[in-house]
Amino acid sequence: MMKEQKGTHGRKKLNLSPASFPESSSSFVAPHPSRLTPHDQKTCRINKFFTQQGLCSRREADRLIEEGRVTINGRVAVLGDQVGPTDVIVRDGLVVPWGNAPVYLKFHKPVGITTTSEPHVPGNIVAYINYPERIFPIGRLDKDSSGLILLTNDGEIVNQILRAEHGHEREYLVQLDRPFDQTFLDRMGRGVVILGKRTRPCVVSRRGQREFRIVLTEGRNRQIRRMCQALGYKVIALNRTRIMNITLQGLPVGRWKHLSDQERAQLLAALGRSSPEAAQR
Questions:
Q1: Given CA atoms 235, 237, 241, 244 in this order, what sign does their dihedral have?
Q2: Catalytic one among 87, 142, 181, 186?
Q3: Residue 36 carries which DSSP code?
Q4: How far apart are CA 31 and CA 228, in angstroms?
Q5: Rounded to an integer, what distance in angstroms lies between the CA atom of residue 236 and that of residue 234?
Q6: 58 φ, ψ to 5°?
Q7: Is 142 designated active site?
Q8: pLDDT tens, 99-128?
Q9: How far is CA 130 from the centre of its chain?
């Protein structure tokens, strides 16, 4: 008989040694196929399963599989395995349930919060929000920056938003350490060489003697700060105000809320995903 132990957060941790979980084990009772809809009976690759459940990206799932930390019905998973609703998938001794509904949040991140889902990192964004279901941030926002960030349990949406070839807009307000001239704005708009490569052309406009607005269609590491530094300026404050059609309007610093029906519909449509149901396919 397979033994159960209490894991973290009250979840049951399973002893999955070969002796406790032989191939013929019937300790798990799977739903009968006749009770499943045709959609439910579809299979997918094991790495896609992890993204659909909002646990991690496909790349991270592949790493977990390669490290032998994932099993399917008691067998150690391998890259490319197909799984369906009648399979029992276990990661690090914990059963991963099927069927999470997609969640989409927007959060006005304060300065000092770290954009990571790693629980051991102090001040991480997931612990700060304390949402009752597992979610993770879409992309990053520097610890010393503030503004809009989206969070979800829909791993499939991440690359669709973040990959530069999709050209999705992100808008920022930036304050510098000293006044700048039109030459600075022109050079920023044409692109600046950082980390050995020129940034994409972007829209830049003045908001004050030391403040400007910038709209990017790529998201390189600390991009705006590096661009300004390359031109001899230092960023004092940086606030992201928009991601695609989602804005900070009406959302105070440190607060989060679910996307409205209209926001979610527009976001998914822009990504070629017409409905929440499509987001789970």
A1: positive
A2: 142
A3: S
A4: 57
A5: 6
A6: -65, -40
A7: yes
A8: 667 889 999 999 999 998 888 899 999 999
A9: 16
Contact yes or no for 63/43 (Cβ under 8 A)? no
Closest CA to 224 of 143, 107, 197, 234: 234
Q: What are phi and psi of 95, to 5 degrees?
A: -70, 135
For the chain, the first-to-last Cα distance in angstroms comes to 36
Q: What's the rounded mean pLDDT across residues 30-58?
A: 62
Which two three-digit tokens encode residue 261?
């029906």
Residue type, 22: P
Residue with tokens 């920056």: 145
Residue 49 · residue 30 · CB < 8 Å: no
CA distance 155 to 179: 42
271 contacts 152 by C-beta, under 8 angstroms: no
Pairing of strands 146-152, 235-243: parallel
Residue-wise pLDDT for 166-224, tens only, equals 789 999 999 999 999 999 999 999 999 999 999 999 999 999 999 999 999 998 999 99
Pinpoint the alpha helices (H) of the chain.
46-52, 58-66, 125-129, 156-162, 182-190, 223-230, 261-270, 276-279
pTM above 0.85, yes or no: no
Give tens-digit pLDDT for 223-235.
999 999 999 999 9
Q: What domains, with CATH codes, occur in the chain?
A: 4-95 (3.10.290.10), 100-163+246-281 (3.30.70.580), 169-243 (3.30.70.1560)
For residue 209, the 8-state DSSP code is S
Q: What is the dihedral of CA 262, 267, 269, 274, to 10 degrees?
A: -70
Identify the bridge partners of residue 205 per DSSP, sorted by sequence position.
213
